[in-house]
Amino acid sequence: MRSFANGFFLLFLLYSVTGCSLAVKPDEPEQLPYWVNNHSLTQAVGTSKVNFQGVYTQRAAALNSAKSQLAHNIRSYISSSLQNELRVSNSEISSSFSDKIVALSDVYLSDVRQVDAFFDSQKKLYILVESPKEKIERRLGLASSVKQSTESLPALLARPYEKDELMKSRCYQKEILETISTKSALFQGKPVWFFRPNQGGVLGSVGIAEKEEGMTLREQIRVAYSLAKASFLKEQKMRIESEHELLKIVNEDIQTELFESSTLIKSAAKSTPTEQKDIWLDPKSCELYVWIVGKDEVRN
Amino acid sequence: MKYFFIITTFFLASVFAGKTVVKTVTINQMLYPQMTFLQVKEIALEEAKKAAAKEIYGETLISETIMFNGKVLDDVVREQSGGVVRIKGEPKFSNGENFGDIVVSIEAYATDEDLQNRPKIVEDREFSIDDADEKIGRLKRSFYGLWSGFIMRSGGGSSDVIIKITSSGEATINYVASNCGGDLITKEKTPTMVKFQQKLTYGYERCTDRAFVVLKKINDTQSLFTQFDEQEREVAKGTLYREE
């Protein structure tokens, strides 16, 4: 027993002398894709935390935030108003000021495409969107000054899709589940096209429909397909009206910063021929994902 | 020669008049377990007609999304298509590749007159979002106005409270019974909650300075008032009503 105690003491001494510590090392920062912090003016990143309303809402929030950000990259009108107040009361002087910075953007954007997406360990979704350099230059009235990102995306470490996972699901009866055939491999538990709907020159879009009570698979597919088509057309041309407002208030030693943003994205266009390229049902949440591509783009 | 001319004219007229499409739709009966075979056949036929209408008249998709502070408030997609679709002959039903598949094939057409009389569809710049600006405006103004009510302090006692929030976001508070009050500085804000830090400008000896005040919207006319001390302990609570 004594020799064990001596051994432990010696080990502790060795750790102390060599500068090693028994303390737990802090976690290393999470490795996010390079584009989260490094993207050009023709690109923008939108994020959205996980929410109880499902991936459809989370994706819509991240995607539209990215589009709003892109609109502000391209053109925005910034106004700033500073208000300063000095008060004298009972021989005491107090001061306060507020600074309001408003950025307004109202632009028509075309060919805005989702380039990539990523979920971090907290299930926060990051989406990267891009508009072609030429379109932005035309919008700005510039001649080849905007840099287009030339970084190629790394391959996703995807795993093959296994139908067994779907067959264990309670979303639908087994016979109905059998009719869903997913072709794509999965990355972060979702089909690769969820992250990269536009791959290899093929223009595509994703629609996600949640399962509502009493809804048949056919109805769910129809909703997802409609949403995918609307998203596909929106990417071709849309109007973005967006307002970002930052309010800084300093009242003696109380300081505060408030950020508020509102965005309205509209599109109305005649439908172009599209084709369903793949389908995937989330076996746990029962959300149905449909990937469509422009019909001219379909290559088997 | 005369007959040839008549036949050719008739042929060309029939080929180029209106628009004709052939549509084939497959529906699996398994997807409609509650329905009879005849009802599923009817659905298949309806789907084929819809597909034909989309092809003949085209389809317009109107999509509108409203976001506030990074959250989707409203996301609407409308499909518009339609016009008179006529069916040539009888629909042809058959079995599909999979067990339970019902395949229907129709030859649908619209005459020139149908095409001319088709309903006009809103496109491009003429958006029709339902009060989008008003919705965003309502959220921004959600707490603006004059609020008053009665609060109970956890240490005993009560007071009438009046809070005024201007459209520029400046806010003041008055504790009427305690004869104290001051500025409210916004620390956090969501469409349904706003958190202020209180900075007294009078009545220091009768009220606690630097307390936090939280207003939570119950509905458009009522808000829950909670006051916390600097250690975030709840010290007072009540309901305020919108006066203006």
Characterize this entry briefly.
Chain A has 300 residues and is α+β, with helices and mostly antiparallel strands.
Mean pLDDT of chain B: 82
Mean pLDDT of chain A, nearest integer? 83
Overall geometric form of chain A = globular
Percent helix of chain A, as a range, is 25-40%
Order of helices and strands of chain A: HEHEEEEHHHEEHEHEEEE
Distance between the termini of chain B: 88 Å
Number of DSSP strands of chain A?
Answer: 12
- Biggest interface, CB < 8 A: A-B, 50 and 51 residues
Keywords:
heterodimer; A: 300 residues; alpha+beta; four-stranded antiparallel beta sheet; three-stranded antiparallel beta sheet; 7 helices; globular; B: 244 residues; Lipocalin; 2 domains; eight-stranded antiparallel beta barrel; 13 strands; 20% helix; elongated
Describe this structure in words.
Chain A has 300 residues and is α+β, with helices and mostly antiparallel strands. In chain A, 26% of the residues lie in helices and 36% in strands. Chain A has one domain. In chain A, the strands form four sheets. Chain A has a four-stranded antiparallel beta sheet with strand order 2-3-9-10. Chain A has a three-stranded antiparallel beta sheet with strand order 1-5-4. Chain A has a three-stranded antiparallel beta sheet with strand order 8-12-11. The longest helix of chain A has 20 residues, at 55-74. Chain B folds into two domains: 11-137, no CATH class; 141-242, Lipocalin (Beta Barrel). Chain B has an eight-stranded antiparallel β-barrel. In chain B, strands 1-5-4 form a three-stranded antiparallel beta sheet. Chain B has helices at residues 2-16, 37-57, 112-116, 132-140; strands at 19-28, 60-68, 71-80, 86-95, 101-110, 145-153, 158-165, 171-175, 180-190, 193-202, 212-217, 222-228, 234-242. Chain B starts with a helix and ends with a strand. Mean pLDDT of chain B is 82; it is low at 9-16. Chain B has 244 residues and is of the alpha+beta class. Classes of the chains: A alpha+beta (300), B alpha+beta (244). Chains A and B meet through helix 2, strand 3, helix 7, strand 9 and strand 10 of A and strand 2, strand 3, helix 4, strand 9 and strand 10 of B.
